[in-house]
Amino acid sequence: MRLDIHLHFTPDSVVLSRLDDIEDKLDQIIEGEEIIMSMETDALDQAEAAAAANAAADDSAEELLVKLSKMVADLQTNTTDPATVTRITALAAAIKDRAQRLGTAVAANTPAATI
Hints:
Shape: rod-shaped
Order of helices and strands: HH
Structural class: mainly alpha
């Protein structure tokens, strides 16, 4: 035997008004969360693009320093003029210093890995 019971009540206008207010506030919260998530996604996209650009620039700088160092070493080996050797030695020191500064800056600005 199945018994169906139906209750009917008239909703209180104050309760309905409060429910509407609650629904409006929830809609505002959801909209705010969507805006925040969109901003975070945009910021992450920009950070990833900057990191890729920095990586490419770092790779190019490293390649250039290696090539310059080799060229300087070749010049030192094949040059006998004392003035030229002095200039080449100064250039080699400047390249080495710049490479060390670049390496130090990269290490200083790279966050430690967290486990």
